[in-house]
Specification:
single chain, 10 strands
């Protein structure tokens, strides 16, 4: 009888262990998706021995019906400017500095620069932990007096290294803006 009782206890414990371990943990909580940031404003600050300049693209309604307001100061001819980019989300108060996140996730971001006309060259001045360019800091060199454009594109998860073009880099565009510039 004692043996029967012990056997029943062992069987009961075995059955409980089987039931407990076979239960699945069906968690219906959806995985949190890391949403892309809202970038309403791109500020570019340029400094040189010949003076300072700023470019700005501000689109406070985001994908709304209003076009961004774009401004660009004139640049001096045959000059190298030290430049930096600031990205903001001004739908929040105070405005959120998105540049900080781009810097923290530098291996997942890169700015690309397309130049035409009197804008001669862009040189990256910062790199990620693997030595690949980021573009938050850069140098812009102008040519002779005239006009030109600079298109600045931030890509998320580009191929790194790449040939410096958005075509080779892939990834997704976080923001892209073209500035028309007068070089005098």
């Amino acid at each position: 009888m004692k043996r029967n009782k012990t056997l029943k206890t062992v069987l009961a414990l075995s059955l409980m262990a089987t039931v407990i371990t076979s239960c699945s943990s069906d968690d219906d909580t959806p995985e949190v998706v890391n949403e892309e940031e809202i970038i309403t404003t791109m500020n570019i600050t340029l400094t040189s021995a010949n003076g300072n300049a700023t470019f700005q693209s501000q689109d406070l309604d985001g994908d709304g019906p209003n076009a961004p307001v774009i401004t660009a100061d004139n640049l001096a001819a045959n000059t190298t400017y030290t430049a930096s980019i600031e990205l903001l989300n001004e739908t929040e108060t105070p405005a959120e500095d998105i540049t900080e996140e781009v810097a923290e996730e530098s291996d997942e971001h890169q700015f690309f620069f397309g130049l035409t006309g009197s804008l001669a060259e862009v040189t990256y001045a910062d790199t990620d932990g693997n030595g690949n360019p980021i573009g938050i800091e850069f140098q812009l060199t102008t040519g002779e007096a005239g006009t030109g454009t600079i298109t600045i594109t931030l890509r998320h998860e580009p191929k790194k290294p790449n040939d410096g073009t958005t075509a080779d880099a892939g990834g997704e565009t976080d923001i892209a803006q073209t500035f028309s510039v007068i070089v005098e």
